[in-house]
Amino acid sequence: MKLFLLIASLIFSSYILTWAQPITEYWLQARMNGVYELENGGQVQFWGFGDNTPPNPGNKVFIPGPTLRFTQGDSAIVHFQNNSPEMHTIHFHGLDANQANDGVPHTSLEIAPNLTFDYSFNCTNAGTFIYHCHVLTTLHVAMGMYGLVIVDPSSGPGTLVDNGTSYQQEFSLLSSEFDLDWNNNPISPGPFHLFEANYLMLNGKSGTQLHDGEHDIVSSVGDHFALRLANIGYGKTIFQWPSSVSAQIILSDGRPVPTMPNVSEVSLYPGERYDLLMNGNLAIDSFLTASYYDLRNLNLIGTNTVPLKIGDVSITEMETERLRIWPNPVTGSFNIVNPQSFSIEYQIINLEGKELQHGMLWPGNNKIDCVLDRGIYFVYTTQSLGFLKFMVL
Ligand SMILES: [Cu+2]
Hints:
Elements: H1 2-20, E1 23-37, E2 43-51, E3 68-71, E4 75-82, E5 91-93, E6 116-122, E7 127-132, H2 137-142, E8 146-152, E9 169-178, H3 180-184, E10 199-202, E11 217-220, E12 224-231, E13 236-240, E14 245-252, E15 255-256, E16 265-268, E17 273-280, E18 284-293, E19 300-311, H4 315-318, E20 324-326, E21 334-338, E22 344-350, E23 355-361, E24 364-368, E25 375-381, E26 387-392
Bound molecules: copper (II) ion.
Residues 88, 133, 135, 140, 145 line the site of copper (II) ion.
């Protein structure tokens, strides 16, 4: 009887353990045939990571690679396929992978051409992390082999930590660099210590590429937004924003920090990450600036800017009982609920008041296909149902 109880309790506890750690899986591939479109219209080759999810794996790689998103407590599995002629690995920077899954050659293993490996680790802490190839690290990272890992707290997206302040929008910026001479000649790039960053990126884009409307940080007075910052370059990146935007550092390198005064800049050394909770106190149409410094001499190499726009009306305040939109923020198609028993006309307009879309709302739920760029928009109706503000991510 005792033996039976022991076996039963073992089975039960292993069931609880399995149940308590949901498995989240991603499929990534590495390729060395990426073509990067430079800000000046030219092209250079890069190496990178891309999606490899069955049954329709992609055949392209990106800078940065796909963002991997987990929940604290997840058991993570990343199925990696090396679709290239050289060895590669994935190192999960800041995550608690054991030695076999650490992606550091010599202490774990390298993945040979056309082979696969399943990396696994547990997501013990919420925060922002980085993954990158660790083979000839200086070269492979300089060529573009990196991406972000975001771990939401166990309660899911919407706060940076369990029981933390809710945010309504979130943005992430990964700083990185090219030495274009290396991209043009990665076979013999020269001594690694002579890496000279001469093309500076945020989320894989540079200069005017960041001003196409796709990369804007958009929020409203009264809303909080999360800003996740990471640096996989070889220099120091200083991020700065207007002082009317309050910013509190919540996490540093994936660990909570004590409550600190507001900051209006943070410095990120190679591999560092900060998760900030921000809110705009004034309506502004401004910029967040990233300045890149060479760590050997602290010379400023250059800057990138990202539009930072704080609207003057809180999204949450504008939600009306009568007309409803969900989900908000919008990431694909969305729904507008018309509570009336008759159909009404609607218009979608942008912040400049320009009409971008119009149509009819039938009584009840209306599914709307979203063809809008990232930004803030309003839905107006012909009836006095008020209007709604919504955000497209
Ligand atoms: Cu590699």
